[in-house]
Amino acid sequence: MQSRSTPPTRAGGRPRSAEADTAILEATRQALVDLGWTKLTMGDVATRAGVAKTTLYRRWAGKSELVVDAVAELFDELELPDSGSLATDIESVVLQFAALLGRPETKTALMAVVAESTSDEPLRERIRTSIVDRQKRLVLTGRARAQARGELPVEPDTATAAMTADLIFDVIAGAVVHRALVSAEPVDTEWAHRFTLLILGGLAAAASGQGA
Amino acid sequence: MQSRSTPPTRAGGRPRSAEADTAILEATRQALVDLGWTKLTMGDVATRAGVAKTTLYRRWAGKSELVVDAVAELFDELELPDSGSLATDIESVVLQFAALLGRPETKTALMAVVAESTSDEPLRERIRTSIVDRQKRLVLTGRARAQARGELPVEPDTATAAMTADLIFDVIAGAVVHRALVSAEPVDTEWAHRFTLLILGGLAAAASGQGA
DNA sequence: CAGCTTTCGCTACGGCTCGTAGCGTATCTG
DNA sequence: CAGATACGCTACGAGCCGTAGCGAAAGCTG
């Protein structure tokens, strides 16, 4: 995960405690649930983790970095089981993502760090590598499977194919996040079904009218 | 806007200064640009606005409420000029929304208050009434125009029509926000065009396969 | 006009968090 | 063993929070 800030010098001393690492990240998630973003403090996390406050600062520069790493782990739970059709693949990942966003630590943290990242370039990069880019794999494998099934045409131009993948990623992730967090309405199977139909229709249209 | 906290008792004293109100909201937006969300402080805003800190607390309970009101004003700039076709209507609003999210005060504040609202029910309600619900009008008028032109069928069932509008709203707003803030890629005309094609295709498919 | 009500700016305060420094101890490497 | 690093602990100045108390200003009402 490349999570903590690497010790600047080379090896040769007491290694950092791995138990402390996991305890801190777990404590951070729990603190997010109990306190939310603004009321979460470094000192509180340290106490919960049974660790000195200085230990936190030796590994993370601040609250934002800590929370990014604490939440990034959760996103790796997402999977794309091969359900046999593109429609059910999409519905599955939508519902999984919605369930993930239903957990209080996830929803609070994700928006907060994104907000912070808008005026913090290194943090933005950290989010991109730790969270965003890792989830694009879901779109790519989903498309590959659909193409193997013959449900989607193969886009010959590599650049165009990449743009389409990015577009789909933003549409799916964005819509679910907006529905769940901004509109604050439930992402249930009904909604997932309607949304999936919309996407499939759009993909079909884009496939026919290729020369956009 | 119903922004500030209403004075609990009835009228009959010195009225609150309207100049102070606008100065505070403007100072808040500027502070967001300069400092970002976490480093923005009530005291700093007060100084910028040329107002006592106590005056801020007489009107807003805290940072979140203040920022919501400061940003809500900006969203009212969005318009839906009747461009003659649904496609260009969508592209227009997408680009407008993207331009709005390009402004540092907007992007920082929007995500931050949404994050805060996940563990603050009154704040969530404030966001809903001050920002979210007011922008759904764009979807509704856009649909009405498209139906008048014959571009979209009229959905007979009121409940279904409302769900469709909510879906489209979440998809458009969510995709633009995700593209601009999470993926941190530009929302240019190219992207807007591709996205619009996707939406239109989805709408067409949903219209034909009505009995979802 | 006089009197009531509310807001305003200002100052001050206790409480909390921040992020760092310093120390002695613990743990691992060569 | 010597060197290097991490650890827990304590303490600290700095900054911000949100509130209280004051005298003065500015409207409304009769």
From TrEMBL, chains A, B:
Keywords: DNA-binding, Transcription, Transcription regulation. Pfam families: TetR_C_11, TetR_N. InterPro entries: Homeodomain-like_sf, HTH-type_TetR-like_transc_reg, HTH_TetR, Tet_transcr_reg_TetR-rel_C_sf, TetR_C. Residues 41-60 bind DNA. PROSITE patterns: HTH_TETR_2 (PS50977). The keyword Secreted does not apply. Signal peptide: none annotated. Residues 18-78 form the HTH tetR-type domain. Gene3D superfamilies: Homeodomain-like (1.10.10.60), Tetracycline Repressor, domain 2 (1.10.357.10). The keyword Transcription regulation applies. PANTHER family: HTH-TYPE TRANSCRIPTIONAL REGULATOR RUTR, TRANSCRIPTIONAL REGULATORY PROTEIN (PROBABLY TETR-FAMILY)-RELATED. This is Transcriptional regulator. It comes from Streptomyces lasiicapitis.
